[in-house]
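Readers of this paper often ask what the protein records in our data store actually look like. The remainder of this section carries one protein's record, kept here as part of the documentation.

:::
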Amino acid sequence: MRLQWSLILGLIFALLTAVFAVINVDPVEVNFYFDVVSIPLILVILGCALIGGVIVGSYGIFRQYKLQKQIKGLTAELNKLRDAGNSLDAVPVNQDSFSGNSTSQL
């Protein structure tokens, strides 16, 4: 359900951005430090929205990769601890030695 709401909100945001960009079609001067270019404002708005989407998407992919790596490491550690616990279950324990030591120290 959360994914559906995210998709709907994303589409609404894209629609609002497109409407805003279409309204602003006047040419503007953009200074690239080495050159000044006159381009329509619609291209500036859509270009900035695209760059923002790429940055957010890249961060999301990086975060997902980092979490997958952490999950893999924790799963390996859990399996290692389970194997160690199973090997300890196979060792016989003498209950008399534990009860005898505790009463003699009291």
About this structure: Strands lie at 27-31, 36-40. Residues 41-89 form the longest helix (49 residues). The helical segments are 2-23, 41-89, 95-105. The longest strand covers residues 27-31.
